[in-house]
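Supplementary Data S3. Sequence and structure tokens for construct A.
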Amino acid sequence: MSTKKMDKGFRPATAKLLGFAAIAAIGAGAWSQTAPNGPPSNSAAGLALPEAPKLFGTPLPSVVKASVLVNGEVITQSDIDQRVALQQMANGQTLSPDQLEQLRQQVLSNLVDESLEIQAAKHEDITIKKESIDRAVQRVADNVKRTPDQLADMLTQAGSSIATLRRQIEGELAWRQLQDAKIESGISVGDDEVKAVIDKLEASKGTEEFHVSEIFLSANSANRDQVRANADKILQALQQGASFPSLARQYSEASTQAVGGDLGWVRPEQLPAPLEAALHEMKDGAVSRPIEVTGGYSILAVQQTRRILVDDPRDAVLNLKQVSIAFPAGTSEKEANQRVEAFAAASRQVGGCGGADKLASDFHGSVVQSDQVQMRDLPPALQQIMLPLQIGQATQPFGDLKDGVRVLLLCGRDQVASKLPTYDEVYAQLNEQRVNTRSRRYLRDLRRDAIIDYR
């Protein structure tokens, strides 16, 4: 199931960029920690807290397993369990007991926020109609090629329910409409601000920038060793093939948690000094070790690099044909390898995209045509293979014996010239940044004023 459909996409987070230079980082900044020249590192100094506080009453257990009341509205253990199952289903991975408990705590926090958002929307006379939720459910079902009833059965089998999905959708729609009514309508962006961004982009032409994702874990002097150990476990999971966005959604404490840790396109100098130094040493696809920064530890992942306003062959739009072959059950590894070798030899002599159908026929395969494919949307390894190809040539075969082997034929390539974003694009991006910033403050205020009772 697509995580884009199933995750809490409307929770305030650092805005994604619109495919051009790092506008989001000009001005407000694009990182989750305090920059070197920011406020004092001890953010609790103003509270005058005692070093050895005397505690009264019964402590709240570190693992909350009972129901929760949010301004009188009940979140049951069943609600938590079903949302955890939904999240696991969306992420498509098996978690260790420790990871599962951390996910449970994050889900509980999300459910509390979701209740506050729906309550705030109702206070503003915003009600999400059943028909709107039905349409969203239909889109999710379409995305996984099922009917809504089949989707409901699939969720039940996974330990979740269609009710928990509908509740999550209601929260997303309520929050979005509340943002429109309470926040976006009061935001304005001046012409001089838009022009300043465009001028800075022009001045930055040729500067290298990185498409970066981050997992940030907060730490203090008391728990720093434990947090570092947790960061090392996350890094180990990443090295074993775990999904960076999935782990970011589960563990990151940055504002980008809801979008899988995606910081968008940033320049190294826009990040705190330890992250800047690490970024200069990283290549496409690399993941950093845990980096100590003000307030905790960060793990960075570099998806791609580019130079601002400089033409890049990876910005090309491709027309492709894919020829795939499968292996019948019982095919030995030796037989399969022989067939792949023959398929590779025939692919080298395919004679252009017009020969794709014959190639597929000769090997009892299939052909799929895809137009308007952005090269940057291909996996990094395939980008490197596609870059030197000429029109009509095929890649070497790739895949595996279980799921089949395929080649891509390059039928056309249109180079996209790098250019400055339009006025409207910059305006929309600046507006979105301010909506996100005010949304975070608004949600913070809702939490601050809420009466939350853990049973």
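Construct B, processed identically:
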Amino acid sequence: MSINQRHSRQHYHVGNLAEQLLSSARTMLEEVGAAKLSMRALCNALGVTPTAAYHHFSNRAELLAQLATEGYLELAEVLNEKSATLSIAEKMRGFCLIYLGFARRNTALYQLMFGPQLALENMPEHLSSARQLAFSRLEMMVADLLQQPHDSIEVRSAALASWSYIHGLTSLLLHDVLQQPAGVSDQRIIERTLAAFEVLFRGHAASINTV
């Protein structure tokens, strides 16, 4: 059944059109990617007029920003819910696995959230706030690990380093730059790379002590 068949005109009302536009845009995003998602194609698929759609989203950029906002809010929610059940010893590994899992389930949305379509200088407040909310979940985890205040410089720096690590690893895996051997799970890759960091940091500390 096509999108046109599933969403005939009679199912769309003023009260829920914005929600329907976002839902269908989310589906289209995963099917064709952000570059090919257009307001015209979305309106054609839904059987609504561009005028009706533009009443809720003035342009394509506004629609994409709202999709990304929903993505960050969902990421923050899943990180908050699942990481709360982890012990201190499991938090870093578990957090990274949750993050990577979200990206795998929502690949196109994840790429939109961190992609060039949403320039930082033009980022609307609701998107900026949602992005910070997701980052704050990582800060809370790092604060627990370091036993430091949530707003300390140490926590923020360590959270930024952690985010850089898992975002970089996620991007390498999603774009097949890093080839994942058959039978090797995401959890195993995270465990290996985190263990390698420990070896690297121990070696760095030892070199400093010998100077």
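The first helix runs from residue 3 to 6. The mean pLDDT is 85.
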